[in-house]
Amino acid sequence: MSPVLQSLLGYSITPSLLGMVAASHPLKTLEPGWRPPIGR
């Protein structure tokens, strides 16, 4: 996906850090091999 499309789909964060996924940037979820952290 293009960076613009990724941002429109929510793979970005706002200055108030809304959109964080497991305390990391949402783009990390698009990386090959990314796994969500185990629930606490």
Average pLDDT for all residues: 74
Helix content: 10-25%
Rg to the nearest angstrom? Answer: 11 Å
H and E order: H
Uncertain parts? none
Count, helices: 1
The 3D shape can be described as: flat
Instruction: Describe the sheet with the most strands.
Output: none
DSSP strand count: 0
Structural class: mainly alpha
Distance between the termini: 32 Å
Strand content: under 5%
Relevant terms:
about 40 residues; 1 helix; flat; mainly alpha
Detailed description of the structure:
With 40 residues, the chain is an all-alpha fold. It has 1 helix and no strands. The N and C termini lie far apart (32 Å).
Précis, in short:
With 40 residues, the chain is mainly α. It is 15% helix and 0% strand.
What does the secondary structure layout of this molecule look like, with pairings?
Blueprint: H1 3-8
